[in-house]
């Protein structure tokens, strides 16, 4: 069995963009599971994604208000087709991240996080994969806005791809 994933974070709607880019909505429609690592900012996006995504897993971030925190956890843990995921908005400094996250998230195969708007893909000493999809709406110091797609195939995470959001027409 193959499960298609979409990883997004730091959408900051409607502050950094008015809407989620069309390419990201296409990825939502194509995904079996959407993981959003926080900083939604407006509960309207949560409602839209819950209505449109086949399955949505999300966490709240530091820019999310009480309405989002009331509906989303700080940390999410889910096993998806045999792959153990954890998700949190912020992991702290890049220096020593892998070792800190190993201690904080034992028995985790993939940790999804956000906050920095900087894409990240590394492997901790335990073998846990750390993924930050960047932001599809606010590139900050990055050359482009980004999101991540991946596939779980027979209990293994494969085909992890960092994708640039195409410029709007």
From TrEMBL:
Belongs to the metallophosphoesterase superfamily. YfcE family. Residues 4-154 form the Calcineurin-like phosphoesterase domain. Transmembrane segments: none annotated. The keyword Kinase does not apply. It is an enzyme of class 3 (hydrolase). The keyword Metal-binding applies. Its cofactor is a divalent metal cation. Its EC number is 3.1.4.-. This is Phosphoesterase. The lineage of its organism: Bacteria, Bacillati, Actinomycetota, Actinomycetes, Micrococcales. GO terms for molecular function: hydrolase activity; metal ion binding. Keywords: Metal-binding. It comes from the Bacteria.
């Amino acid at each position: 069995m193959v499960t298609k994933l979409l990883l997004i974070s730091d959408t900051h709607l409607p502050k950094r963009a008015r809407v989620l880019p069309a390419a990201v909505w296409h990825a939502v429609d194509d995904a079996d599971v959407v993981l959003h690592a926080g900083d939604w900012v407006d509960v309207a996006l949560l409602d839209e994604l819950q209505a449109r995504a086949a399955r949505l897993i999300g966490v709240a971030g530091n820019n999310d208000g009480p309405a989002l925190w009331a509906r989303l956890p700080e940390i999410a843990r889910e096993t998806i087709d045999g792959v153990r995921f954890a998700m949190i908005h912020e992991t702290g400094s890049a220096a020593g991240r892998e070792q800190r996250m190993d201690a904080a998230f034992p028995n985790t195969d993939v940790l999804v996080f956000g906050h920095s708007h900087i894409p990240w893909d590394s492997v901790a000493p335990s073998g846990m994969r750390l993924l930050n999809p960047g932001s599809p709406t606010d590139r900050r110091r990055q050359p482009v806005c980004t999101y991540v797609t991946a596939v779980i195939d027979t209990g293994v995470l494969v085909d992890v791809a960092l994708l640039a959001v195409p410029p709007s027409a």
